[in-house]
Design goal:
Layout (H helix, E strand, L loop, with lengths): L18 E6 L5 H13 L3 E6 L3 H4 L2 H8 L17 H8 L2 E7 L1 H9 L5 H8 L3 E6 L3 H5 L1 H12 L3 E2 L3 E4 L5 E5 L3 H11 L9 E6 L4 E4 L2 E3 L6 H12 L3 E6 L12 E4 L3 H11 L5 E4 L6 E3 L18 E3 L3 H7 L6 E8 L3 H11 L4 E6 L11 E2 L2 E4 L4 E3 L3 E2 H19 L1
Helix pairs in contact: 1-3, 4-6, 5-8, 10-14
Length: about 425
């Protein structure tokens, strides 16, 4: 595959101009906070950092100021907090308040309403969404007092993330590690996203399938699963209960916000998709399922012998066609159509034949579109032959447009 065709990617900045107040408490994981702030800034966010006195011992305010381009604060009486109510202005400025790492001390203070420093005072003054990311020794995290304080915060609508299992800096093993950046980013984005899909069940199929020939060989295709992963991410961000069925890819789909099933073959994909679809409000078939599979499987590796090898293939089950046959009234069924010629004509024929509500069509020969790219250039076609052409977009932006169209369909039917 020509990798150059994926190099025209537009900049993807999902946090463009969003305002994040970022609290850093005392803990060794504070060094990760500096990297996280840097990455959030690169995604377009405006980040203002507030540190506790102990947090500033691990990473200096100057470091955060340099990374974010914003003044960082560590005291109610900071020299740049010249206005009497400057801390209140910080609370009014932000859209979301993140505390990372959240130490046992800061969890206890915020749970009890103690305001003895700038960070805890802001926590009481801030009226928006609050996210805490605990990071500490596993024994500390398991302590009943810490757990009671976490429960108290959650009962007030404050999001407290679960730390990850693993070995922490002191060598102990258990639950206490700070989650990775991608999970933190998802939770921040979700706090800033309208939940217009709340209460809906959405099924997305993704990736390729592999049809085995022998223990070392198989038939497959170039699908990376990125479009399906983008659809599942956006559905989850917008509040849906999201279910993902994925073929083999290099993507990590083990997300706490996703119910995911990994499959290998078209037969396995069909089994799970046809079962799961029965309870879904929206089904999006983004997987690139193999059209053919070998008639027979060789238990042992086939040896090179003849100059030519004839491989007998048979058709696989057409999953999308079967989903169209069992589609419930009110259920939305979306298909994908990757073509190299007669794109709109072929896509609309597929939409009609398979009883789809929408079909997403793309020409895989277009630079930046199709397999293995972070971007896509698609046409969204509905059953009334309306065609919406999208420009080259990041696949998550394409997913947003697809769900906007799905919401319009649902609204028109209600």
């Amino acid at each position: 595959m020509d990798k150059d065709r994926c190099l025209t990617s537009p900049i993807f900045r999902p946090l463009e101009d969003r305002k994040i107040l970022f609290g850093v408490s005392g803990g060794i994981a504070a060094y990760k906070a500096a990297d996280f702030c840097r990455r959030l800034t690169r995604l377009g966010a405006h980040v203002k950092v507030v540190l506790t006195e102990n947090g500033a011992r691990f990473v200096t305010p100057l470091t955060f100021s340099a990374i974010t381009g914003q003044q960082a604060f560590s005291s109610m009486f900071h020299e740049n907090m010249h206005q009497p109510m400057s801390h209140i202005e910080l609370a009014r400025w932000a859209e979301v308040f993140v505390i990372l790492p959240a130490s046992a001390d800061i969890i206890g203070k915020t749970a009890c309403g103690i305001a003895d420093n700038l960070l805890t005072t802001l926590f009481l003054a801030f009226q928006g969404k609050k996210l805490l990311f605990p990071a500490m020794n596993p024994a500390m995290f398991k302590n009943p007092v810490v757990q009671e304080n976490i429960s108290r915060l959650r009962s007030r609508g404050i999001t407290v993330a679960e730390p990850e299992e693993g070995t922490v800096i002191c060598g102990d093993t258990g639950k206490g590690k700070l989650p990775g950046f991608e999970h933190v980013l998802f939770m921040i984005r979700k706090s800033l996203t309208s939940k217009d899909l709340k209460g809906m069940n959405v099924l997305v199929t993704s990736g390729p399938t592999r049809e085995p020939i022998d223990p070392v060989r198989f038939i497959s295709n170039r699908s990376s699963g990125k479009m399906g992963a983008a659809l599942a991410t956006v559905a989850s961000l917008r509040g849906a209960r999201t279910h993902l069925i994925t073929g083999p890819t290099c993507l990590d789909v083990s997300k706490p916000y996703l119910s995911s099933i990994k499959v290998e073959t078209a037969k396995e994909m069909a089994k799970h998709a046809l079962t799961e679809a029965k309870a879904m409000d929206v089904v999006i078939m983004a997987a690139a399922v193999a059209d053919y599979t070998p008639v027979s499987y060789n238990e042992n590796k086939m040896k090179k012998s003849e100059q030519r090898l004839v491989l007998e293939l048979e058709k696989t089950q057409d999953i999308l066609l079967e989903l169209g046959k069992i589609k419930r009234p009110g259920q939305i069924l979306v298909g994908f159509c990757a073509e190299t010629d007669n794109l709109i004509e072929n896509a609309f024929k597929k939409l009609q034949k398979k009883n789809l509500d929408l079909i997403i069509a793309n020409d895989v020969t277009t630079p930046g579109a199709g397999f293995d790219c972070d971007t896509n250039k698609v046409f969204i076609i509905d059953s009334e032959e309306n065609v919406e052409e999208l420009p080259l977009l990041h696949k998550e932006e394409v997913a947003e447009r697809i769900f906007d169209k799905i919401k319009n369909l649902l609204s028109s039917r209600s």
